[in-house]
Amino acid sequence: MSRPPVLRVDLPAWLAGFRSKLPPRLPDIEQRMEVAISLARQNVIAGSGGPFGALVVSAADGEVIALGVNRVEPASCSSAHAEIVALSLAQQGSGHWNLAEHRAAPLQLVTSCEPCAMCLGAIPWSGVGSVLCGATKADAEAAGFDEGDRPDAWVDKLKARGIAVSLAVKRSEAAAVLDMYARGGHTIYGPGQ
Fold it and tell me: Are 136 and 111 in contact (CB under 8 A)?
């Protein structure tokens, strides 16, 4: 009898060491964003994926629940964006697809860049209560990435669902990682690339 197919996205080897050096809690939003940006930067430096990092934390005290980095190319998986990886790991760790059911809820998604169209669609389904974003869609597009079509009022649409959004947290630092990636001649992937 043949085995069913398996979907697997391996994380880079350096991520375990990165996680072991983090404090268990990141109490303020600047610390949380610094970690997301550091994840993105390390992913570029290590050549282990695209210039995006994300984490899921407890909104109340910053308990680190899951870390994610972009693995699109290494995993040959267009949906392996940093946000999707972090959300999926948090869900698997909690044993529930709805992170509103997590013991440390409400949870917060921290992402080094505003969500692309795909990741934006995943946010309401995930059960997070808030989102922190670093670089903007314009910053990602300036680096050559196609972020897809998002509604102009995407922040308001998430707020209407009870999901608070903070934009441009440490934007210049986050945008610098995108620029570093683009200037380094790395693959710019996406529709039509």
Answer: no
Q: Pick the catalytic residue from 83, 114, 147, 173.
A: 83
Chain mean position to CA 61: 19
Q: Is 83 a catalytic residue?
A: yes
Q: Is the dihedral of CA 152, 156, 157, 163 positive or negative?
A: positive
What pTM did the predictor assign?
0.96
**Of 101, 150, 93, whose CA–CA distance to 127 is shortest?**
101
pLDDT in tens, 43-78: 999 999 999 999 999 999 999 999 999 999 999 999
Helices 29-45 and 171-183, interaxial angle, to 10°? 10
Closest residue by Cα to residue 113 from 151, 189, 168: 168
